[in-house]
C-alpha cells in the first residue's frame, strides 16, 4: 500500500511538472494555455499570480513526493522548481508568441520561496507543539 501511495505522489508530481512546462513554454494557441490565460486574465497581476502559483504548487508537490528527510526534500524541491522556473523563462526567448521577462522569473521564484517559508513555518509550529508535549 505504501509503494502505491509513493507511486501516486510521484505521478502527481510528474503530471504537475508537465502541466507547468506546457503553460510556461507553449503559445496561447494551445487550448490549455489559452484557457488558463482566459481564467487569470492578461494583466501583469494575473501573470504574476499565475507564475507564483504554478511554481509554488510545484515546490509543494515535489516536497510531498520526495522520500527524503524533510530538510533535504525541501531543498531538492526548491532546487527543482527554481531550476525549472529559470529554464522556462530562458526557453521562452525562442518560442514564437512568448516573451521572457524578469518579472515572470521573479514571480516563479516568489512562489517557490513563499511555499518553502510556509513549510518551514508549519514544521516549526508542529515541532513546538510536539516538543512542549514531551516536556510535560
Tell me what the structure shows.
With 136 residues, this protein is mostly helical. The protein has one domain. The protein is built from five helices and no strands. The mean pLDDT is 87.
Report a brief summary of the structure.
The chain is an all-alpha fold and 136 residues long. It has helices spanning 2-25, 31-40, 44-65, 70-91, 102-135. The longest helix has 34 residues, at 102-135.
Let me know the average pLDDT: 87
What is the rounded Rg? 17 Å
Please, what is the oligomeric state? Answer: single chain
What about the largest sheet? none
Strand percent estimate: under 5%
- Determine the number of helices (DSSP H or I, runs of at least 4 residues): 5
Report the principal-axis shape.
Answer: globular
Topology of this structure?
Elements: H1 2-25, H2 31-40, H3 44-65, H4 70-91, H5 102-135
Helix pairs in contact: 1-3, 3-4, 3-5, 4-5
